[in-house]
Amino acid sequence: MKAVVIPKYGRSTVLEVREFPDPTPGPSEVRIQVKAAGLNFAEITARQGLYPDAPKPPCVVGYEVAGVVDLVGSEVNGLSEGDRVVGFTRFGGHASLAVLDQSLALRMPEGMSFEQGAAIPVNYLTAHHVLFHIGHTHPGSRILLHMAAGGVGTAVLQLLQTVPEVQVFGTASASKHDYLRNLGCAHPIDYRSQDYVEVIREVLGVRAGLDLVLDPLGGPHWKKGWSLLAPTGRLVAYGLASAVEGPKRSLLRVARAFHAALLVTPFSLMNDNRSLQGVNFGHLWTETERLRPQFLRVMSLFEEGIVRPQIHRVFDFEDAAAAHRELEEGRNRGKVLLRPG
Ligand SMILES: NC(=O)c1ccc[n+]([C@@H]2O[C@H](COP(=O)([O-])OP(=O)(O)OC[C@H]3O[C@@H](n4cnc5c(N)ncnc54)[C@H](OP(=O)(O)O)[C@@H]3O)[C@@H](O)[C@H]2O)c1
Fold first, then answer.
1. The domain containing residue 55 runs over which residues?
2. Which protein residue has the closest C-alpha to ligand 1 atom 26?
3. Domain containing 38 — which CATH number?
4. What mean pLDDT comes out for the span 266-287?
5. Contact residues for 138 (Cβ-Cβ < 8 A; gap 6+)
6. Does residue 75 carry a pLDDT above 80?
7. Residue 249 clears pLDDT 80, i.e. is over it
8. Residue 295 falls within a domain, yes or no?
């Protein structure tokens, strides 16, 4: 098989395509011929050396794939050779063959393309998890969504179509505001020219607050988001994007983000009636009984027309460096995908 390799930390130009022996699935695993694989921000930071969970270089990353089953393990039930499936890989997805645990590989609905399939797992499971599993989103919720025009943000806005009368404040650069409005975001905020705290206070009034803050930015944004919460409000922290800017790693930026972090204690949580929750999907991998029902729900919402993965562009493995740059430079509106070519 062939795979996109991170041979060492550095700029996107370090990426290489290399040949490897074909993998063999374990008893409860399936092997699939990958037709499309998702590229995520985490994999950009893995290449930059800023993602501690990623394997050490040389390594093959990639969390999600869609393709055709070509080998099944001896204990696999319900999946067979030739099935079109979508699922999670704990790294190793940016390859022409990938091995998946059967519990996190689902047969694709008819009408779902491989590109749509590969765009679903990380973005939509994250979105579903932060909104419903831990965010307790309810009718009438007031929500601040950062990085609203990105892959997770788009998924959040689509899934919110299942909840009546939510009011969303979404941060994104101005050129993406029409895109956000079309997805039901009532208040797009240009974070480059506006202070979102001021905008939200102006709209809601100083006394009212938010029910949910969805924050993949971290650093100083945790404190700002916390200050906007209403009693019983929740802040969900799921990223540290504010510490990653530009093509190379900067430990200084990471240190600054930690320095600016929100400090809460059980006393302050209790007295403020607020909650803080973290999400790291990479660490939820083995929690299949929590993830699989959410995955099935997302697939059924695809069939209902609510989940509509936005594909930004598909790159051949040989053009993986250009794909990385597309995400790194924030040019994407929707999912960047890789394919073996
Ligand atoms: N913890 C987890 O398990 C988990 C899972 C999935 C994703 N994540 C995290 O979630 C974040 C979003 O992922 P994604 O895949 O949706 O990213 P994405 O598709 O690459 O979208 C990122 C977009 O956010 C915008 N952006 C950048 N800086 C911003 C800022 N300061 N304020 C508002 N918008 C900003 C950029 O567009 P504009 O600047 O043009 O608006 C960029 O295109 C990443 O940090 C990722 O690591 C975490």
1. 2-120+309-339
2. 147
3. 3.90.180.10
4. 92
5. 163, 211
6. yes
7. no
8. no
Residues 132, 116: one domain?
Answer: no
pLDDT, tens digit, for every residue of 10-52? 999 999 999 999 999 999 999 999 999 999 989 999 999 988 8
Mutate which of 53, 88, 144, 147 for ligand 1 pocket (most atoms within 8 A of beta carbon): 147
For residues 266 and 313, state if they share a domain.
no
Q: What residues flank ligand 1, with Cβ below 6 Å?
A: 40-42, 122, 126, 146-147, 149-153, 171-173, 176, 191, 216-217, 238-239, 241, 279-281, 327, 330, 332
Mark 57-74 as b/e (b = at least 16 C-beta within 10 Å).
bebbbbbbbbbebebbbe
DSSP H or E stretch at residue 296? helix 288-303
The answer on pLDDT for 227 being more than 70 is yes
Residues 205/190, Cβ–Cβ less than 8 Å = no
How many domains is the chain partitioned into structurally?
Answer: 2
**Beta strands, E only, the chain:** 2-5, 16-19, 29-39, 64-72, 84-88, 97-101, 105-107, 142-145, 167-171, 187-189, 210-215, 229-237, 275-278, 311-316, 335-339
Compute the mean pLDDT over every residue in the chain, rounded to the nearest whole number: 94
pLDDT class of 87 with cuts at 50, 70, 90: very high
Boundary-marking domain end, from 238, 264, 282:
282
For residues 62-67, average pLDDT: 97
Residue 298 lies in a domain: no
Q: For 126-142, write each residue's pLDDT tens digit.
A: 999 999 999 999 999 99
- Establish if 104 belongs to a structural domain: yes
**153 plus 105 within the same structural domain:** no
- Residue 64 backbone dihedrals phi, psi, to 5 degrees: -155, 140
Are 239 and 148 found together in one domain?
A: yes
Query: Do 134 and 232 fall into the same domain?
Result: yes
